[in-house]
Each structure stands twice: as C-alpha cells, then as structure tokens.
Design brief:
- It is a single chain.
- By secondary structure, the protein is mainly α.
- It has one domain.
- Helix content is about 70%, strand content about 0%.
- The chain has four helices and no strands.
- Helix 3 runs antiparallel to helix 4.
- The model has no long low-confidence stretch (mean pLDDT about 85).
Length: about 80
Amino acid sequence: MQPNTFGDWAELEGERSRLQDWQLSLLKEWHSGGEPNEILNVLKSILTEFIKAHKGICEKVGCEEDPEWVEKFFGMVL
C-alpha cells in the first residue's frame, strides 16, 4: 500500500477517525501551507504535544527521557 493515501487520512480525520475531538482540533490547528513562516508557527505549536508524547513513549518503553535531546532537536529547526 502506498503511504499517505487519501484512505489513510480519512481514518485520521474523517468519520472513521478514532481520535478524540481535542485531537482532531489540534490537527486542524496544525495545518499549514508551504510558506516558511506558517510551517515554523505550526512547529512551535506542536512542541508542547511532542514533549508530552516523548515523555509518554519513554515511560512505556522504559527508557530515560532526555529533555535536552528534544531541545536540541527543535533548536535545529526553530
């Protein structure tokens, strides 16, 4: 199957979505055109959720969370 086909997104954002309303709302907020400033603004708004996800994944897989890695990663982009 080809990645990112229309059907893949329909499962995320369409009627078949398993996401909660607040998650769908974030996805809508994170939409961006191709303008660099728009992309950077979206990345900045994603940062908080990324940090939460990173922490949760670290806890689930039993590895030590590394906030400095996250800062370095986003610092390279932002």
